[in-house]
Amino acid sequence: MTAPALLPLSGRRIPPLSLGPPSFPHHRATLRLSEKFILLLILSAFITLCFGAFFFLPDSSKHKRFDLGLEDVLIPHVDAGKGAKNPGVFLIHGPDEHRHREEEERLRNKIRADHEKALEEAKEKLRKSREEIRAEIQTEKNKVVQEMKTKENKPLPPVAVPNLVGISGGDPEDTEIKKKRDKIKEMMKHAWDNYRTYGWGHNELRPIAKKGHSTNIFGSSLMGATIVDALDTLYIMGLHDEFLDGQRWIEDNLDFSVNSEVSVFEVNIRFIGGLLAAYYLSGEEVRKMKSGVGRNWGWASAGSSILAEFGTLHMEFVHLSYLTGDLVYYKKVMHIRKLLQKMDRPNGLYPNYLNPRTGRWGQYHTSVGGLGDSFYEYLLKAWLMSDKTDHEARRMYDDAIEAIEKHLVKKSRGGLVFIGEWKNGHLEKKMGHLACFAGGMFALGADGSRKDKAGHYLELGAEIARTCHESYDRTALKLGPESFKFDGAVEAVAVRQAEKYYILRPEVIETYWYLWRFTHDPRYRQWGWEAALAIEKYCRVSGGFSGVKDVYSSTPTHDDVQQSFFLAETLKYLYLLFSGDDLLPLDHWVFNTEAHPLPVLHLANTTLSGNPAVR
Ligand code: DMJ
Predict the structure, then answer these.
(1) Average pLDDT estimate for 303-328
(2) Of 163, 357, 402, 489, which residue is the least packed, with the fewest Cβ within 10 Å?
(3) Which chain positions lie within coiled-coil regions (predicted)?
(4) Alpha-carbon distance 28 to 31, whole Å?
(5) 394-427 b/e with 16+ CB inside 10 Å = b?
């Protein structure tokens, strides 16, 4: 693939980031992409701070016990043990148990008090009219923009750009494989073109009604979620006109000054992850944000306390710290990690709910599917992204998967290996489509696992892939249900009507791709192609692609939603499945949970302040 001159390729240095305020020429009413990126960074700072302040994060100035003392260390070497420079992680295991208990109690009281305060503030906000709330938000934003404008305009020395290997290419030599890859690209074009025609600027598309679609995960406004989510897929497929079109929309229209509740998780994985990946792939300049902009939004205080939500910020936030030179993001996610690490875990498992009032686990429901999934994924990926130096993350991952294997992984009578869910004191023999991503995760984590268990985890990944393939194969449409059971004679089949739908999800294809990369066993390409054909046959409509309500009915009823993750993930993983391994090689790239590739930070033992490129 040849990229147009506008899109710099690997081997180049990204231009210096500017520390100073972005310019806001008087004649221009809209913000540039780089300026919007800054607002996104600010939004992410708000999210972290609101979320952290209310539920998890101690006031580090008062609670030294949780202070990591990592101001100058980007990736900690927590294994260091004796004589380690950074003793932060060991403080929580210190000898003075009594003092620790007291401090723990004090922390719990603080969390309780903060939570009450947050509730009061939220109630107060609800009493205000939309206009008043909007005006308050606008005032806050004006302040931030003003601060940025007045800040000294001092260019930053260039950031050491991670090695951006394999951002194009991957052309298969085999003509049959190439045809398949071209078909996937054509499907992407069909999805994108219809969104462009009928849903432009809306979050998603209704391909049958041929109009925009919005769900409350992005708030009610037109945030163009599909555009941000799809950008990097367009780029790697060589759809550069479409990429530029999306980029222009972001420059001219993406507006974060919305008065609306959004999902922290979704904003992080789709918007922050999507823009970071597009930045790395295309070299679009971003500017450094002003630090210390943390203020609390009342509306954000209704944040969730779901494991996969607060545990799925790490990758994006480490990159934000890396690019901006501001450690605030990194420190916040590390505090979350420390707190989790310190808590007792029933059977070594992390329950999905953490009670914000008490700082204790809520209901003991554990799953590797919805609510829990990406927490485990991000532990492994934190290690990979740190060039395998974040040993603490790896240890937490290894501990977690050992517990998962011991308590949740089972074999059905028919010999299918599945991951159940621990609920109300017993194992539910049910696996969600979401949990199928774990096959890929086990394969990805095999190298580097304990006691030479690499082969074992690769096999486990392959078993999960087989089971998830069965869940597809045992349907009329050859597409997998949302959730399937193992109950007596029932194996890998959905029982309840409400679990029979397929909404263009990627997890099974994601697992095929990882297994393909690690084994080159042709069955994964074959299974991926089966899924692609089924999507083409049953989900394609003239206005795009739609989910289906019942995969067991041979006449599909469409749900009329083209999910943004279909373009971000499903089609990207399919495209990669039929590409050579030189496209986005896994020793240089780590995919966030929305399939946005972020480069490995080869920073072993360097410190942020000591990094020659970031002084
Ligand atoms: C995506 O948004 C992400 O993959 C997330 O981690 C889980 N669910 C959807 C796709 O199914």
Answers:
(1) 83
(2) 489
(3) 101-154
(4) 8
(5) bbbbbbbbebbbebbbeebeeebbbbbbbeeeee
Share of the chain above pLDDT 90, in %: 53
CB atoms within 10 A of CB 144: 18
Alpha-carbon distances, residue 81 vs 65, 90, 96, 340 (angstroms) = 17, 8, 19, 20
Q: How many residues does the chain have?
A: 615
Give the whole-angstrom CA distance, residue 387 versus residue 165: 14
- Whether 265 is in the pocket of ligand 1, judged by its Cβ within 6 Å, is no
Q: Which of 218, 223, 196 is nearest to 207 (CA)?
A: 196
Lookup: tokens for 552: 């067991």
Residue pLDDT, tens place only, 502-543:
999 999 999 999 999 999 999 999 999 999 999 999 999 999
The tokens of 349 are what? 């498992």
Residue 25 to residue 322: CA distance in whole angstroms? 28
Rounded Cα distance, 72 and 583, in Å: 34
59-68 contact pairs (CB < 8 A, 24+): 59/110, 60/331, 60/335, 63/103, 63/106, 63/107, 64/91, 65/91, 65/92, 65/94, 65/100, 65/103, 66/91, 66/92, 66/107, 66/335, 66/338, 66/339, 67/91, 68/331, 68/334, 68/335, 68/338
List binding-site positions for Ca(2+): 593
| pLDDT above 60 (res 390) | yes
**Cα separation values, 441 from 408, 508, 544, 563, Å:** 15, 11, 30, 23
The best mutation among 215, 593, 596 to test binding of ligand 1, ranked by most ligand atoms within 8 Å of the C-beta, falls on 593
- Residue 433 banded pLDDT, cuts 50, 70, 90: very high
